[in-house]
């Protein structure tokens, strides 16, 4: 199912970027849903642990490991969604109405800078994750391989980088067509 390029201002590049943007939005929606489901799972684990402590007099084995795992999934996969939904905090400056051209350039460059930051953080985290993998580190109680925790973080940063790059291209091409 292809859409004609005329619908997107005649540019095949813009049509491709638009389709990629829609795909990334769908992907980040799914990741956010799975991440928030994991957060609900973490809450359930904590509640069960509290109830078990009251009833059984002891804590549930592995509750901390499972809670950390779920929170890592939720936090790491919510970041790409925030970029995709453009839900980050922004500040409107007083002079924005007077210097529209300058702020338009800044608005176009922000996703590129965010992509650069996320790529840099991915690079730094990759090294640490590979170190953890080579050591074979596992969680304290359930022996969950720590690379799985890092997998959530790395995938979230990689997808965030791609979302920011696609958003940058979309803004650049939209501005070019105007």
From TrEMBL:
Superkingdom of the organism of origin: Bacteria
Transmembrane intervals: 30-52, 64-83, 103-126, 147-169
Keyword Transport tagged: yes
Topology relative to the membrane: Multi-pass membrane protein
InterPro entries referenced in this protein's UniProt entry, alphabetically: DctQ, TRAP_DctQ
Protein family: Belongs to the TRAP transporter small permease family.
Subunit field text: The complex comprises the extracytoplasmic solute receptor protein and the two transmembrane proteins.
Cited function: Part of the tripartite ATP-independent periplasmic (TRAP) transport system.
Name the record gives this protein: TRAP transporter small permease protein
Annotated source species: Thalassospira indica
